[in-house]
């Protein structure tokens, strides 16, 4: 059975209260959640069978292309000096990172 909830906070509460068995969302979100709840959540590694691939990213207002370009260039600098890899490793995201970053101009299609 699937629960349809209004937001991520409700999903967290559903798991903590026993109304739900699990949450499926981005690995970065789950890693942060696990750390912030003193281990009340366990993050399972690896892909979910038949779930497809939905990498996470940033969204920018399409009326402000300069912000998108600035963020992309900043990430490139962090990649080149090794900082990006250190950040990914610190938060357990190195295995799922998209390097080099890409800019997707197509709708996500969710």
Which features would summarize this protein structure in a list?
2 domains, globular, 110 residues, 40% helix, mainly alpha
Question: What does the model show?
Answer:
With 110 residues, the protein is mostly helical. It folds into two domains: 1-51, no CATH class; 55-110, no CATH class. It is built from four helices and no strands. It has helices at 8-17, 27-36, 65-80, 83-90. The longest helix is centred in the middle third of the chain and has 16 residues, at 65-80. It is globular and about 45 Å long. It starts with 7 loop residues before the first helix and ends in a 20-residue tail after the last helix. 2% of the residues are buried.
- How is the main sheet built? none
Give the fraction of residues assigned to helices.
40-55%
- Output mean pLDDT: 77
Output the helix-strand order.
HHHH
Total tally of structural domains: 2
Q: Number of helix segments? A: 4
**Approximate strand percentage:** under 5%
């Amino acid at each position: 059975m699937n629960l349809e909830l209004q937001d991520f906070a409700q999903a967290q509460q559903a798991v903590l209260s026993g109304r739900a068995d699990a949450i499926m969302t981005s690995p970065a979100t789950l890693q942060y959640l696990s750390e912030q709840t003193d281990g009340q959540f366990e993050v399972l590694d690896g892909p979910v069978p038949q779930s497809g691939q939905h990498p996470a990213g940033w969204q920018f207002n399409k009326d402000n292309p300069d912000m998108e370009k600035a963020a992309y260039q900043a990430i490139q600098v962090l990649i080149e000096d090794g900082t990006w890899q250190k950040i990914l490793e610190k938060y357990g995201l190195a295995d799922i990172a998209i390097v080099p970053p890409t800019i997707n101009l197509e709708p996500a299609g969710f």
